[in-house]
Protein 1
Amino acid sequence: MWIFGYGSLVWRPDFRYINRQEGHVKGFIRRFWQLSEDHRGLPGKPGRVVTLISTGNQSDCVYGVAYEISNVDEVSVRHVLDVREKDGYTIIETNFYPKDVEQKDMTCYTYMAHTENPFWGGDAPLDQIAEQIAHAYGPSGSNHEYLFKLAEAIRTITSVHDEHLFSLDKLVKTILIQDEQK
Ligand code: BEZ
């Protein structure tokens, strides 16, 4: 079984794996449109985390990391996935295209937040999303740490520009510098 991560799993997989491949999935974009009240925010002051948004356009792609899980670990990893589902994500299957051209594309599982889930944040002006991320904290740490680590990890994987991710990275860094000067 392969699992594709495009959020915190890119830089901090929380399960055991036997193989790791950097690459991308097609037909999606990555957006900070899911609210987090349990990891990177709190009830009443949610943070924002990423979800895949299906575009139906095969030239759209999202870079991340696919992890191969051994048969013996499948049950425990499925438990981790179930917890994610409770956070508003649904598991889907999609094709993954490894960066390493020697490797064939493969089917993997990943998660996607649907618009009807209780933690759906949806689209908002980028400066509002940046403000929210800059000032949200939760049990797993600050929301800006999540954003900065993700942007840094994606830059090491690909030179393909992720406009939404990198613009937020820049905006939130500016907000935090301004906060320090207050
Ligand atoms: C991720 O890290 O890729 C991820 C984890 C949970 C839900 C969505 C994405």
Protein 2
Amino acid sequence: MKTYSIAAIPGDGIGTEVVACGLQVLDAIAKRDGSFKFKFDHFDWGGEYYKKHGRMMPVDGRDQIRKHDAILFGSAGHPEIPDHITLWGLRLAICQPFDQYANVRPTRVLPGITSPLRNVKDKELDWVIVRENSEGEYAGVGGRVHQGSPLEAATDVAMFTRPGVERIMRFAFRLAQSRPRKHLTVVTKSNAQRHAMVMWDEIATEVAAGFKDVTWDKMLVDAMTVRMVMRPETLDTIVATNLHADILSDLAAALAGSLGIAPTANLNPERKFPSMFEPIHGSAFDIMGKGVANPIGTFWSAVMMLDHVGERVAAGRLMRAIERVTADKRLHTPDLGGTARTADVTAAVVDAIHGANA
Ligand code: IPM
Ligand code: MG
């Protein structure tokens, strides 16, 4: 029987709660399928690890997970540790060296869930945001000088390379091509950012020439927020820089009903390194330990993971199980306006996996 090795890194806050549920659901889907199974290895990296060891993960951490088929990640973020340390010490310390340059964030209004947009019908909000995940505003270029003096200065330089932009554009056009609408929106800010964003636009035009069957348009990021709210049905696949897509994907998740549902895949499309799957929501310390975190974002991320390892049938089955559960309002967690608990939702998804129509 095929065995997939999965590195589980729950991280901080509700990450530990939702990843545990994610593993339960993955086991259930493997059992239901019968042709593969999972081997989970657990890594206790994150804020608590930092408090003991002064770093978010061990020096050889990446080597410990390099050979795994995929990584299931919870979240990094701890109230006692500055956010830039938790981010750069764990999540980016995995994403960037493992060259997970394509961050894929699907957004849909799932059955039973109400979008805050008046009148939006589910089919009218069905997007995939492709976030450049290796450079741009998150390149880490910059510095700070004269701290504590009135002359203090700091820079954060957004760095874009031609190969980096070309590969994310190609990935986005290919993804758009694989979807029924075959439409890509390239988000930019080349009116104000007159160097890198102008190169970004030029490369989009060049790459588009190789995808004649894909229609595409260009949107300034500020106008894009308006279009997402006012004309969601005109969008399908979206590509944006690291920071622009970070912001737009939070808006997208909110428009689809809750940040608690939104999944993400950090892909190394060439498969030289493992890819990493995680819910978007973050560590949410305010609700930690209460048993009310929404595990759907992790389950949907698990669907993306199944797809990535090639288990398409199981991926489809898990997505249908998730949708059957969201369709039942009694199984909504508080972020969706309900009173269900993390464990109720998980048990219902496991039941749906084993159910008659699964
Ligand atoms: C995301 C998150 C992260 C980001 C945070 C937790 C640093 O918001 O995945 O969208 O900004 O990349
Ligand atoms: Mg974000």
